[in-house]
Design goal:
It comes from Pseudonocardia benzenivorans. By secondary structure, the chain is of the alpha/beta class. It has helices spanning 3-6, 14-35, 53-62, 117-126, 152-167, 176-181, 202-217, 224-234, and strands at residues 43-47, 67-72, 85-89, 102-108, 128-140, 186-193, 196-198, 240-242, 245-252. It binds S-adenosylmethionine. S-adenosylmethionine (SAM) is lined by residues 9, 21-22, 48, 50-51, 72-74, 90-93, 108-110, 113.
């Protein structure tokens, strides 16, 4: 089983899943980008741009004098982005990045999928101008500890995590500080955030769609009764469950 097979963007509900992921994680990403001083005239590289929400935010922030290069192996959701965004279909494992000397390189939820993550991260650092910022954000299974044992949510998320472990590095987030430090970056900072989801909201829907896609792709993560009880819990307003943790790590290229 490969990641491309299990979580592909060609899935019929992939666009909605992307929208819900953006609704869950964009506020934190935007907080970090704002704190790093992203502003008018800056040149930015958005890698694994996905549904395009962060590329769109960057475009608004850098303005007409800036640049936003949005890169993805699958650009199907990036057709309606405003200037100064340019869209590049690119496999970051093998294709050249669209330029260098960037003031900012941002990547979210991509490296954990890639066996070549060390080489790819080297290339992101090399694409920065001296003093330019790298912001890398990846998942971490630390949030499993916040789940109440024996609940439908905990049961289902453990099934999902077991399968996800075969596809991606679900503990990638905690490796980021070391990865940035070993590349000689300055001004390193790290944050870990666990979003809580209310039943019926976009964060809960993101989990329903992601785990639902895996459930479909694997022929069943759990028996249908377990899946149905979990689904009902995540559609119930006033029910709160922990979602997937995100670790955000940033640093500046020395020079
Ligand atoms: C989980 S999605 C995250 C999307 C977006 N970064 C976000 O957080 O909203 C991962 C994205 O990386 C893209 N991707 C996967 N492998 C890639 C590769 N080798 N090169 C470039 N993009 C890739 C996928 O097409 C997908 O859009």
């Amino acid at each position: 089983m490969s990641t491309e097979y299990a979580l592909q963007d060609s899935w019929h509900r992939a666009r909605r899943r992307m929208d819900c992921m953006e609704a869950t994680y964009d506020p934190g990403t935007i907080r970090h980008l704002t704190a790093l001083g992203v502003g008018p005239g800056m040149r930015c590289l958005e890698v694994g741009a996905g549904g395009g929400s962060i590329a769109r935010w960057l475009a608004d922030r850098v303005g007409p004098g800036g640049e936003v290069a949005a890169v993805d192996i699958d650009v199907r959701f990036l057709s309606d982005l405003p200037p100064p965004v340019s869209v590049h279909e690119c496999d970051v494992r093998v294709d050249p990045l669209p330029g260098d000397g960037f003031d900012l390189v941002h990547v979210r939820f991509l490296l954990a999928h890639l066996a070549e993550r060390d080489e790819v991260l080297d290339r992101f650092v090399a694409a920065l101008r001296p003093g330019g910022w790298l912001l890398v954000e990846e998942c971490d299974s630390v949030s499993t500890a916040a789940m109440v044992p024996g609940t439908p949510h905990e049961t289902m998320m453990r099934h999902a995590e077991r399968v996800l472990r075969q596809l991606i590095d679900v503990d990638m987030g905690r490796a980021l500080p070391g990865m940035l430090t070993s590349r000689g970056l300055d001004g390193i900072g790290v944050d870990c955030h666990v979003p809580f989801a209310e039943g019926g909201g976009p964060e809960a829907e993101w989990m329903l769609l992601t785990v639902g896609q895996l459930h479909e792709a694997t022929g069943g993560l759990a028996d249908e009764e377990t899946f149905a009880r979990w689904e009902a819990a995540l559609r119930e307003p006033r029910t709160w469950v922990p979602g997937g943790a995100i670790v955000s790590a940033w640093g500046r290229r020395a020079g």
